[in-house]
Amino acid sequence: MRIMKRTLAVLMLFLILCSMCLPDAKATDLESTANDEVPIKYQYIHQAYCNLEIIGGSASINSFVKGSAGSTTKCEIELKLQRRVLFWWVTVETWTKTAMDYQASLNVTHSVESGKTYRAVAEFTVWNGSSSESATATSATKEAP
User: Fold this and answer.
1) Local structure of residue 37 (DSSP, 8 states)
2) From 28, 65, 85, 112, which residue has the greatest number of CB atoms within 10 Å?
3) Is residue 70 part of a domain?
4) pLDDT for the residue numbered 41
5) Is 2 a member of any domain?
6) Which residues are paired to 66 by β-bridges?
7) How many domains does the chain have?
8) What is the span of the domain harbouring residue 111?
9) CA torsion, ordered 38, 41, 43, 48, to nearest 10 deg
């Protein structure tokens, strides 16, 4: 029994140390260029981004999606603030916005805990009539001071 407890403790320590060595996960589905334009692989989504800033105990998240003026009928953003727990990401809060327009933005603030690491994930959906296209963007990770 004593050996089993010791083995379990060593295994837990190993997992914790391994989680600290993992690189920050970032979505590669939607990588913006320097001027926030979306790569050519998207037919309806022309511009999209998701940014996270943490100042003091507050996270500020800005997200934006733009389709084609004249043919895009609806844009939707689902925005999540996530906190890293060991090597998992846990959703702290979720917001959504739908705009019957060719573009939409969703800008929110939320309190954060000091010393914790956060990221924002935005899923964008753009409709052209009955056809739609989706993409996901993930902000850089930030640690709350």
Assistant:
1) B
2) 65
3) yes
4) 73
5) no
6) 47, 103
7) 1
8) 25-143
9) -20
The answer to whether residue 4 scores a pLDDT higher than 80 is no
CA distances from 113 to 36, 74, 95 (A): 29, 35, 19
Q: Mind listing the pLDDT tens digit for each residue in 39-67?
A: 557 889 999 999 999 998 999 999 999 99
User: Taking the CA atoms of the chain, what radius of gyration do you get in angstroms?
Assistant: 19
Structure tokens that stand for 123 in this block: 């899923």
Sign of CA dihedral 13, 18, 24, 27: negative
Predicted pLDDT of residue 35: 46
Q: What stretches of the chain show up as alpha helix (H) in DSSP?
A: 2-21
Length of the chain: 145
> Left (φ > 0), alpha (ψ -120 to 50) or beta: where does 96 sit?
beta
Do residues 79 and 120 touch, judged by C-beta distance below 8 A? yes
pTM for the full predicted model: 0.73
Per-residue pLDDT band for 34 (boundaries 50, 70, 90) equals very low
d(CA 117, CA 18): 17
Is the residue at 3 inside a domain? no
